Amino acid sequence: MIQAVIFDLDGVIVSTDECHYQAWKRMAEEENIPFNRTINERLRGVSRMESLDIILENSAREYSNKEKAALAARKNSYYVELIQSLSENDLLPGALHALRSLRENGIKIAIGSSSKNTPLIMKRLGIESLFDAVADGNDISRSKPDPEVFLLAAQKLGMSPGDCLVVEDADSGVEAALRAGMKVLGVGSAKNNPRATVTAGDLSSFDILSYIRQS
Ligand code: BG6
Ligand code: MG
Fold first, then answer.
1. Disulfide-capable partner of 170 in 17, 44, 67, 119 (CB 3.0 to 4.6 Å)?
2. Where do the domains of the chain lie, and which CATH numbers do they carry?
């Protein structure tokens, strides 16, 4: 029986995808590194430094670790600039309703995100108080598809992995949830992922509470 739901943040609760894309694009153009939306799809759910490594596969030259840290910091400064204007209008369809109805019905809810900007984003959206636990990029050393972030979220909730449902938009996140021994609802970019336990276009077209009650 599912007793807790762990939500990915970017692409599930909030549409920050375009901000990530624009920030990486600005950095890549400044460095003359080819970058496009197809490459960008591979960055979903992946940590900042691993995302940079994927982008640098197309670079004409090698970068030292120090230079790489500077590139990642530069991208993040562009990204943080872009997310300053985030507000509750950027919450994805059905997200707030899902969070509230789960809470009201005694289901524990947590965030399990690779992003180090999770605290800032949650603050801008005004959703911090809705969650029982947060596990994010600041707490982990291994990025999705490693299950670390979801196992940590379950631990913070005091739940067994088998009692948790993950909601994910990234294929890497679907794998992470399965490796954690959890069920996973694939939405958005993961809505056609055959590995997901169940799928939906977004949270407005799926009743998590009913699903939990039937499971
Ligand atoms: C994930 C995004 O949630 O966070 C990735 O899907 C991003 O695209 C990752 O790279 C890390 O984000 P941040 O905010 O720590 O750079
Ligand atoms: Mg995501």
1. 44
2. 4-14+87-214 (3.40.50.1000), 17-83 (1.10.150.240)
Amino acid at 77: S
pLDDT at 48: 97
Q: How confident is the model at residue 215 (pLDDT cuts 50, 70, 90)?
A: confident
Paired tokens of 113:
């995100």
What residues flank ion ligand 2 with Cβ within 5 A?
Answer: 8, 10-11, 169-170
CA-nearest residue, atom 14 of ligand 1:
115
Let me know: does 4 contact 154? Beta carbons within 8 Å. yes
For 212, the 3-state DSSP assignment is: helix
Is there a contact between 132 and 26 (Cβ–Cβ < 8 Å)? no
Q: What is the pLDDT of residues 79-130, one digit of tens each?
A: 999 999 999 999 999 999 999 999 999 999 999 999 999 999 999 999 999 9
For residues 145 and 151, is the Cβ–Cβ distance under 8 A?
no
Residue positions annotated with a catalytic role: 8, 10
State the distance from the centre of ligand 1 to the C-alpha of 47, rounded, in angstroms: 5
Examine the pLDDT at 176 and tell me if it is beyond 90: yes
Ligand in closest contact with the CA of 114: 1
* Mean pLDDT along residues 5-24: 96
Q: What is the dihedral of CA 126, 132, 136, 139, to 10 degrees?
A: 130
Asked if residue 115 has its Cβ within 6 Å of ligand 1, the reply is yes
